[in-house]
Amino acid sequence: MTARELDAAGIHELALRAAYSECRRLNARHGKTYFLATRLLPVERRPAVHALYGFARWADDIVDDLHSGATAEERATALGGLQERLDDGLRRGACREPVIRALAHTAAVYGIDHRHFTDFMASMRSDLTVTGYASYEELGRYMHGSAAVIGLQILPVLGTVGPRGDAEPYAAALGVAFQLSNFLRDVGEDLDRGRLYLPADLLAAHGVDRERLLWSRATGRPDARITRALRAAAAHNRGVYRAALPGIALLAPVSRPCVRTAFVLYSGILDAIEDDGYRVLHRRAVVPRTRRAAVALDGLVRVLAARVQARTAGASPVRARPARAARTSAAPSGALAPAAREEMA
Question: pLDDT for 90-122, tens place per residue?
């Protein structure tokens, strides 16, 4: 975390500054696309987003790290301990663990509903035992906790131009759209973990099952039926992006470039997968750096335009307005329920 961001957010206590800095390091190391988009936010809002992402990354690593050698029982114990520290930190508003300390502070400042964290942890626990999903409806119930609530957590930080409740379904949908793209990109790696996030009924409609996916993963050989199934999954994912898109206009103007950039970059994963012939079982599709740079530059231009417009209107272009007492309670549909000079420093 840069001193400029922490100072702008009014975070002065040394231990708390160190906690937010740890969250920023997690974001920069693990979430390159997300981190790039976050740098387009007003500086005083960035620490909160880093805290929310840092906690989600930490929990996800407990579940997914292939190199730790931890057993399912050890992972369950680690998640249980994390849940206890989370509950205590949210209740007291502080914690010795840096990531939870920053998260608890962010939740208090922005009035984030604690149920979103409870739902998230429930989905993380299910990953220890659930290895597949029969349908998008079933997968959607999982993604409410693993993805939709991430959008709902971040929404108070981004701010809205109208009632927050109007924007909540779109924020949830965008979180789901981002995760569906990750599922499609990472299908091979998830199979290595023993999990499959492509619904069984979608696969079956194209003559594919888990065994055929494992065969293709092991042999490196493509299969036209698998390609058709992956293409159908991508089409579904694009539909969720379309459903989420109108929500960007409901955000505070200074936050829109950040979310729009994330929208373009994450949906660009689908383009990269298509360009690579849907070979996701054999290699990870990557959005080219030149494309990422062009999208970031467009985002920066939009940031500058939003700030000029805000100044013209006589409003502060970057002042966060935390909703300290606000609480959200929307439960969106799971299927729909994520470097350029000083401005991005």
Answer: 998 878 899 999 999 999 999 999 999 999 999
Give the whole-angstrom CA distance, residue 173 versus residue 3. Answer: 33
Name the token pair of 245: 């898109």
Round to whole Å and give the CA distance between 221 and 215: 8
Please name every residue paired with 160 in a beta bridge, in sequence order, or none if there are none. Answer: 251
Give the C-alpha separation, 228 to 210, whole Å.
15
Phi, psi of 251 (to 5 degrees): -80, 160
Neighbours of 192 (CB within 10 A): 11
Which string of DSSP letters, residue by residue, matches 98-147?
HHHHHHHHHHHHHT--THHHHHHHHHHHHTTT----SSHHHHHHHHIIII
- Band of residue 128 on the pLDDT scale cut at 50, 70, 90: very high
Q: How far apart are CA 200 and CA 41, in angstroms?
A: 39
Task: Take residue 24 and report the two structure tokens written for it.
Answer: 């920023």
The tokens for 50 are: 């880093």
pTM for the full model?
A: 0.85
Instruction: Specify the range with the lowest mean pLDDT, choosing from 165-169, 201-205, 268-272, 324-328.
Output: 324-328
Answer whether 238's CB lies under 8 Å from 244's CB.
no
The pair of structure tokens assigned to 200 is: 């069984």
Indicate if the alpha-carbon torsion angle 86, 92, 96, 101 is positive or negative: positive
Which is nearest to 290 in space by CA: 268, 315, 275? 268
pLDDT tens for residues 164-200? 999 999 999 999 999 999 999 999 999 999 999 999 9
CB atoms within 10 A of CB 99: 25
Asked if 182 contacts 279 with a C-beta cutoff of 8 angstroms, the reply is: no
